[in-house]
Amino acid sequence: MDIQTLTYIFVGGTFALYIGIAIWAKAGTTDDFYVAGHHVHPLANGMATAADWMSAASFISMAGLISFMGRDGAMYLMGWTGGYVLLALLLAPYLRKFGQFTVPDFVGDRYYSNAARTVAVICALFVSFTYVAGQMRGVGIVFSRFLEVDITTGVIIGMSIVFFYAVLGGMKGITYTQVAQYCVLIFAFMVPAIFISILMTGNPVPQLGFGSQLADGSGTYLLDKLNGLSVELGFGEYTDGRKSTFDMFCITAALMVGTAGLPHVIVRFFTVPKVRDARLSAGYALILIAILYTTAPAVASFARLNLINTVSNAEYTATPQWFKNWEAIDLIAWRDKNNDGKIQYIAGDAFVGKPAFDSGAGANGERLLSNQNGNSDNELYIDQDIMVLANPEIADLPNWVIALVVAGGLAAALSTAAGLLLVISTSVAHDLFKKMLLPDITDKQELTFARMAVAIAVLIAGYFGINPPGFVAQVVAFAFGLAASTFFPIILMGIFYKRMNKEGAIAGMISGLLFTLIYIVYFKFIDPSANNASHWWFGVSPEGAGALGMTLNFIVAYGVSRFTPAPPEEVLNMVERIRVPRS
Prior knowledge:
The protein is mostly helical.
């Protein structure tokens, strides 16, 4: 059976499953819609949390980044997994003891201020919309390549599916849908990894195959082979880093504390019955997440080695069909600069920015491009986001494995998108309308506002998916930076520093958000020519700006709180109560 037919079967089957679960788990109350009635089993919540947290960036883009960055890509692994440990140990049990619906709920009550709640809502919307843009781009890439529709149509299809089960089921429906999505995405990630590990090293365990000798009888280790090929092509050794240690530290720190401050992950710990269950579900989630994250470096190495062996110095007319398929949707581009009919893949940018395609074909069959980089002899452009999706095709695996990966990529993107959309809707309906603007509305009216907010959020998310500001993992890294610079400091100090007051929290959140946002927007969009280490503050790249924003937040919040009135007695008592997270 051909790839497209199998893809329709796999994707259609999983979509039908998600919709069926949403109908079965329809939310009837605001408690069901926001926190699944606090009745989710710890194991189910652990699986849902893992799916919610392992987004399109984890499934689609992370291994692609590691493929091209080599050792430097480890910051994504260390940051995201380390941050989850931070969340599980420092925040989750205490927030579950607090017992409300959302992060702005905690901020508003802990800091006894609707102004603080409003700032928290704004921060939640910034973080969630930035993050969801990456998910929608991932959905568009998958649909455009494997279902032969353009990226815009793919995003619209993904929006429609998420809209249906997010609006109908709320957190209750999303939770059980995410359990199914975890099963789909982890199976889809591991099957091709095991296949390729056996083919390349003879070892069925990808984590071990990553450090094994190649199965060709040469006695060469996989990473030694990859290092040698990288050097031959003018790149640095794959296992060597090129970023400064301080920048790596800041990016890793931003990802860690950003993970611990992500509102759509935090709210998952409000869905379990008891504090003890929050700890258990955090432990389950960490184990389930580790399965994918320990496999990602192996997948990255396999994909990079297979790619180089397949396309470097190959005759364009002899390239396999997968190359031309990705070229047709503008995610691979080749320009024969020396007119020898071969693909010259070496260090350097083949084009100025993203390739700009013209109509017609070149002398050797390549698509014409109008913005080639004349200062580089590299002729090949590869979008980093395709590496996991193209990996089974590059390795010539069976068609059903390719279709399975498509379903897995969609599961990863849609699971996180649903969680983010729910955060957006609860921030608007519960924290903005119910808590501040219209406190007298009924539960039914609040539920209506929540569903309307999801509908509007889906439309905005779709726009960002069609017009994304970067690679999936880069966009998500910015979202983590914004979460790091806003939520993490005030949540941590709100739990462990009794003297922290509303003035300090508001000043800290605003300063952290503005600094991080301005830093990222300036270097990425206003003056991209200045986006290099010589212009960055302290040599910290925009991806690591969250660490600087977090530091500023801590300093401002602490300083302001020391020179303004202490919190009321009832707030101090509340802090004492949540700091003893008994079951």
